[in-house]
């Protein structure tokens, strides 16, 4: 398939700094007490963009995602310079989606209009909860009121915005979550990302949980909370389009669809991952995670890539399956066969259909059902075996 047909090409840019580290977070984020040298980082971002574009020239960028860390700690001119560098080395689609992740604090919200002027056209706010006690427990630095004020500023500055909430929090009941969700939807306009709280090794929450000081809902309650999420969102016009993401029709995040549909994207900045097609081979790239080490690498050799694996057809097909089945639209088994050189096992498909975990559409697409989604990992493992 030519690249002209494979239109989607995303660029992910990682800003690794945060004001404080949230106790549930296992992302590549770092707290620095001295001011960050943004000009030096911008030069490095531009350099890594240039080097990456030389490996995959001639792409048209359909989406850009500034993630972190906390990208809303960047000066608007820093964001503008990164976007300029992307536009200098690749062509950019007229309808490009440019998302910036932001903390919903008043300090950062005052910059929203400047980000808009710099070229950002969508913002994703890490609200996480709409009650103060939960926010405090999650280690967030904002109040619910401040978050909703920031959402209002986002609404006035951007046509498109989204926010994240974390559920299955300690002591949360399905009733509490349903009312919080309704409030969120009345504020959210078009897109919500809703994640179950997971206890990740190496985070403060992991230690607290192991010591019995942090109780998360049991399996039955977590399942009830998931079901409430699906019902309330669907009823309010924001059905799931991916296992944790809900949107009005047409308001899906284009950038995230690049990942889930197994399309191509460049990963720029410390700890960023990429998937690049070079001479018909899919490369899985990852950069140095430590910001200062990444910076030195880029200054020395033009990029911070520390992993660059060529995926074989089996790995490529498994990744396509793993990502694609997270989507409500499902996957085309013909594409799986083209990638892997073998068909999905019709016997396994028949068994999973019988169990009600997957459905096959009239168009031949394979989709995980409502009852299959809560056990998605098992369904994928079964199909991939």
Written description of the protein model:
The structure is a single chain. The protein has 385 residues and is of the alpha/beta class. The protein has two domains: 9-258, Alpha-Beta Barrel (TIM Barrel); 327-384. Helices cover 41% and strands 23% of the residues. It has 15 helices and 16 strands. The strands form four sheets. Strands 9-10-8-7-6-5-4-1-11 form a nine-stranded mixed sheet, with helices on both faces. It has a three-stranded antiparallel sheet with strand order 12-13-14, with no helix packed on it. The two termini are 27 Å apart.
What's the number of extended β-strand segments? Answer: 16
- SSE class: alpha/beta
* Helix run count: 15
CATH superfamily of the largest domain: Aldolase class I
Largest sheet: 9 strands, mixed
> Which sequence of strands runs across the widest sheet?
9-10-8-7-6-5-4-1-11
Percentage of residues assigned to helices: 40-55%
Head-to-tail CA distance between termini = 27 Å
Structural key phrases:
three-stranded antiparallel β-sheet, alpha/beta, 385 residues, globular, TIM Barrel, 16 strands, 2 domains, nine-stranded mixed β-sheet
Quick structural summary:
With 385 residues, this protein is an alpha/beta fold. It has helices spanning 38-55, 76-89, 106-109, 112-118, 132-137, 144-157, 174-188, 204-210, 219-235, 254-260, 291-301, 313-324, 333-340, 346-354, 376-384; strands at 9-15, 17-18, 30-31, 60-68, 91-102, 122-128, 160-167, 191-196, 240-242, 245-247, 264-268, 273-278, 281-287, 305-310, 358-360, 366-368.
Topology of this structure?
Elements: E1 9-15, E2 17-18, E3 30-31, H1 38-55, E4 60-68, H2 76-89, E5 91-102, H3 106-109, H4 112-118, E6 122-128, H5 132-137, H6 144-157, E7 160-167, H7 174-188, E8 191-196, H8 204-210, H9 219-235, E9 240-242, E10 245-247, H10 254-260, E11 264-268, E12 273-278, E13 281-287, H11 291-301, E14 305-310, H12 313-324, H13 333-340, H14 346-354, E15 358-360, E16 366-368, H15 376-384
Parallel strand pairs: 1-4, 1-11, 2-3, 4-5, 5-6, 6-7, 7-8
Antiparallel strand pairs: 8-10, 9-10, 12-13, 13-14, 15-16
Helix pairs in contact: 1-2, 2-4, 7-9, 12-13
């Amino acid at each position: 398939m030519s690249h002209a047909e494979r239109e989607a090409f995303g660029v992910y840019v990682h800003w690794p700094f945060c004001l404080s580290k949230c106790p549930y977070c296992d992302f590549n984020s770092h707290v620095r007490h001295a001011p960050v040298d943004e000009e030096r980082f911008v030069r490095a971002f531009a350099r890594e963009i240039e080097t990456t574009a030389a490996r995959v020239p001639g792409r048209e960028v359909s989406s850009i995602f500034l993630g972190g860390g906390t990208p809303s700690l960047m000066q608007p001119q820093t964001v503008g310079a990164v976007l300029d560098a992307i536009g200098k080395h690749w062509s950019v689609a007229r309808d490009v989606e440019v998302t910036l992740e932001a903390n919903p604090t008043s300090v950062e919200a005052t910059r929203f209009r400047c980000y808009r002027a710099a070229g950002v056209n969508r913002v994703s706010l890490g609200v996480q909860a709409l009650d103060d006690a939960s926010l405090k427990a999650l280690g967030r630095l904002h109040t619910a009121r401040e978050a909703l004020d920031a959402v209002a500023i986002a609404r006035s500055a951007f046509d498109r915005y989204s926010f994240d909430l974390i559920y299955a929090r300690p002591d949360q009941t399905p009733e509490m979550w349903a009312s919080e969700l309704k409030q969120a939807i009345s504020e959210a306009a078009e897109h919500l990302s809703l994640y179950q709280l997971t206890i990740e090794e190496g985070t403060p929450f992991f230690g607290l949980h192991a010591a019995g000081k942090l109780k998360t809902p049991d399996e039955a309650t977590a399942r009830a909370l998931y079901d409430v999420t699906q019902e309330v969102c669907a009823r309010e016009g924001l059905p799931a389009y991916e296992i944790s993401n809900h949107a009005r029709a047409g308001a899906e995040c284009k950038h995230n669809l690049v990942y889930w549909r197994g399309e191509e994207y460049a990963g720029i900045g410390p700890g960023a991952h990429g998937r690049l097609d070079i001479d018909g081979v899919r490369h899985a790239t990852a950069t140095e995670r430590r910001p200062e080490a990444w910076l030195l690498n880029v200054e020395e050799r033009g990029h911070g890539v520390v992993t660059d694996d060529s995926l074989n057809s089996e790995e490529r097909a498994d990744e396509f399956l793993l990502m694609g089945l997270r989507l409500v639209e499902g996957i085309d088994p013909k594409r799986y066969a083209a990638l892997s050189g073998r068909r999905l096992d019709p016997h396994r498909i028949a068994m999973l259909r019988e169990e009600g975990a997957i459905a096959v559409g009239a168009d031949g697409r394979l989709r995980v059902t409502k009852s299959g989604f809560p056990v998605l990992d098992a369904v994928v493992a079964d199909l991939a075996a």
